[in-house]
């Protein structure tokens, strides 16, 4: 398939939507991004990458990191993660405390904020350096040694992180937080601040299209674990819009508040799209449309 | 692939689980079923069927009909169905009123009871005979003209249907019920009572593996609509266990309270398994395990 | 105290508010009422009545009947009522199903619709004629043999009663409805339709100011039971505005959707006010203001 | 009325219940208290005090302080308190986040933890020293200059205060916290740690029975404000058991997790009872029974 041609067609088709929606504004670093940016890239399982638009422009990866920290804990952990976090869609906004209270501090899944905090807490316990482990992994998979945290973004997240503090303290009150709340949150905010571009991300996520095999040929996850991460992405990866995303796009995907989305066609390719304008449920307007268009043009979705 | 050998392996592997869980007991017709029954069948896209165990034993299809009535409304309707029912996982039990009240009488998806009542209401409005339309379709696709409603089951469902009456009256109070509540419920209860076996069901569901094409080669759904039904099955088909089902099985699927489950591998096959013992969330214990085993042995899942 | 003078002062003070708010419009009989009506009456424990404005104009008593049916069940029952309905404020709208589902079909208190349906169900079981028993009681206490149900209102309530049907069927599904749903609702709708004026109501409620003693000197409730009914009125009588009503008025009170409110100062007097314009929580705007003014001018509240 | 005789009768009547229930155990200082303690005192409006049992034994006043901090903010504030906290019963446990999220960070009332944190935040803003202002007031009203905070209790509360941190950070994320979370919580924990006995408390609460007038004859609250505080106590003072407390006791009251309860009969008396065993909703088993008995024996309740 001529992915480059498809990408160019997609970019042309969704151009009218670029700039729609509203960029996240809760921290200055995100609010300052030009809402008219649009980039998209695809990598096949052999690592050939194609891109269009602002695909080489770095942005804060934010919630996309939740996929990588989950995979790292599954790879390094002792298999008990699912005692501390569920794998069901929440049907609620990503930062809600309601369900967490009804369910005694066990988050519904690893892709809402509370669940990602549990994953970071576990990764910290397993490695002693959650954020460092993540950064090393992302550099290795993307082949980009220049990847870095953005301290301004990290500090800004922390300064505006009251809701995340509430989530973490609530879980601590239920006994579902191993490390000190302040330490877990520090690693969480730094993780979210990593700056990457679409090229970096399609390469970094490639192990999910390769059934668990890393760029260097070593195995991060078993085939079964890779299937599981993809399944959780499909049912839980786009907040309370997961059903609609599956309906329209038909791929496992994970979105971030900066307007980025990654998606995986197991055995075939990984996608990344970035455009800052968000819809009411926090997903990139042009981004979802572009993925929808891509699976329609190629006829390649999981359904 | 030698599906017959796989089915026999699966049956042997899950034999220790058959009889686990509890059959549904809210109506006598379901409570009377032997909990040690287990049947499973697979059909490829060309209609070749293999089966194991009690695969030719009929049972009440119950909630499985929700898939067929949804497809019929999409095929016959004017495209406005999604104004009256959503397509997001509910994260709640199948008969809950809580979310329905918070969301003004618009059910989360067509596979919880409230959503299926909306679909039946629409099908009735489109055809004047919702249950008859369904029966005719099931007979045609399965090639089994002997399929019938079971009046004892239908009456029994109605006599124990207070919760469904509550759901329908609630939606009526929100203006989301076109026909009279009593009429819609009558059709709903009769639909659920259709008696079919695993063979019938894998054939009847085959259009979902054939991207919308019926047994006779005519098209029921567009390719895009077929993808959408499969997506909704994956995110919403197994009540509040959809995430876990995707994680374990990795296929779009729909379960019924009689212990039956259908599943679809687009482009490849349809599966049906039946074993009456249910887990706490209403899905067949041996049935889910059998599907899990099938996708593991074949390596064929959507992820 | 010169109650007549106080009433006239109150009427003058709240005159600017009469016509504010919106009358209930869900049935034609209520929507047709002139929103500029205002009447108020007070009765002392000896039955001396004073009134002002439209105090002799009859209106549908609606939810006010919930106080009388509760008292009748406490008087006639076997003491087990509180197994079927609670006595805690609900903190939710009067017709909500959410809490009812979380609490397994046991309504929070007898003054929300679900709770009143349970009370009517019990009264029906105790007497064989819930609505007849109520009417006889109201005639005796008010000394007005002309009190009647309004069949137009009753039929209209039934025709617009989908939400109440949903509540009753839900409770039936939880085993908390003794009689057939249709029979209980019929009595409930007829009860709500009784036409009374402010004079009738202050006399009919007088047993609550007389610690349980009826107009004829016989005892309906023990002193302790009368205290209990007043307590439930104070904490639950004005829907989800009970706290605000206690804060402003400082008396046990019960409101109805027609814009009527009764209030009780134990040992001293009963009040009734009627003005159809409702606030967002379903209580009469001018009515609450008038009661607030009355307790301020007289210095007589329970606090 | 011979209050001493009544108290002795009450103590005798409830003696079989002393030791029932479970003392709070979340901090060592509370868990260590002898569960068989029982003390009770009454003060009339002129300050004459009677007591029985362990009425002169000090204990942690805990949530009782919420009444005093509310009164102080009403007395010192600019009248805008009710923009930041409601006055409706919550119908939920005292430390729940669910309602707080649905209602955008505005707590239902000042007597659940979230509401009390808002009150402390306001008191801190008004005085610069919330806890000091409270202590000074309690000393003045009780005439006991020896009243002190218990630093061990305060530190212990803080160490076990994850849930309160979650509440405060959540409100901060909604913009409903003026001061830094850590400062507000510090004052809150210290306030709760004040050690007082039944005698101290009936005297300190006496302004609520005196329609707002302090021990020295000066006015703390207007008559209307005093009525309002009593109303909020009645509808919200005993967590999610406020309806039952009103039904049984019939007085405005406020309970604390140490097993203490204060109650007010406006114009007549204040009561305090202490016995550590709590029921499932956090109120003293013997304490509620004693208040119930007191109002029954004296015939003095607000209803």
Automatic annotation (TrEMBL), chains A, B, C, D:
Q: Which residues form the signal peptide?
A: none
Query: Pfam families recorded for this chain?
Result: Glutaminase
Catalytic reaction equation(s): L-glutamine + H2O = L-glutamate + NH4(+)
Keyword annotations of the record: Acetylation, Hydrolase
- List the InterPro entries hit by this protein, alphabetically: Beta-lactam/transpept-like, Glutaminase
* One GO MF term attached to the UniProt entry: glutaminase activity
Please tell me where substrate binds in this chain: 63, 113, 157, 164, 188, 239, 257
Q: What is its EC number?
A: 3.5.1.2
Coiled coil ranges: none
Give the top-level enzyme category.
hydrolase
This protein's record includes keyword Hydrolase: yes
Q: How does it assemble?
A: Homotetramer.
Its family? Belongs to the glutaminase family.
Q: What is this protein called?
A: Glutaminase
């Amino acid at each position: 398939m001529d992915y480059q041609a498809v990408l160019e067609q997609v970019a042309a088709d969704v151009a009218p939507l670029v700039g729609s929606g509203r960029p996240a504004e809760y921290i200055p670093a995100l609010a300052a991004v030009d809402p008219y940016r649009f980039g998209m890239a695809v990598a096949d399982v052999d690592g050939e990458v194609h891109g269009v638009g602002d695909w080489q422009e770095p942005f804060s990866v934010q919630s996309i990191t939740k996929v990588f920290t989950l995979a790292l804990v599954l790879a390094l952990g002792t298999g008990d993660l699912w005692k501390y976090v569920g794998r069901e869609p929440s049907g609620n906004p990503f930062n809600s405390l309601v369900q967490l209270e009804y369910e005694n501090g066990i988050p519904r899944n690893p892709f809402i904020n509370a669940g990602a905090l549990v994953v970071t807490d576990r990764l910290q316990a397993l490695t002693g350096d959650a954020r460092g482990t993540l950064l090393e992994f992302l550099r290795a998979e993307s082949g980009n040694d220049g990847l870095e945290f953005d301290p301004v973004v990290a500090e800004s997240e922390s300064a505006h992180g009251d809701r995340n503090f509430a989530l973490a303290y609530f879980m601590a009150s239920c006994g579902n937080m191993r490390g000190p709340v302040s330490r877990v949150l520090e690693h969480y905010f730094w993780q979210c601040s990593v700056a990457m571009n679409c090229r970096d991300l399609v390469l970094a996520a490639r192990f999910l299209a390769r059934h668990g095999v890393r760029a260097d040929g070593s195995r991060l996850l078993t085939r079964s674990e890779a299937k599981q991460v993809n399944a959780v992405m499909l049912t839980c990866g786009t907040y309370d819009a997961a059903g609609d995303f599956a309906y329209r796009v038909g791929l496992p995907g994970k979105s971030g508040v900066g307007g980025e989305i990654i998606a995986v066609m197991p055995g075939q390719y990984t996608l990344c799209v970035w455009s800052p304008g968000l819809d009411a449920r926090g997903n990139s307007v042009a981004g979802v449309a572009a993925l929808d268009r891509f699976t329609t043009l190629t006829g390649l979705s999981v359904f």
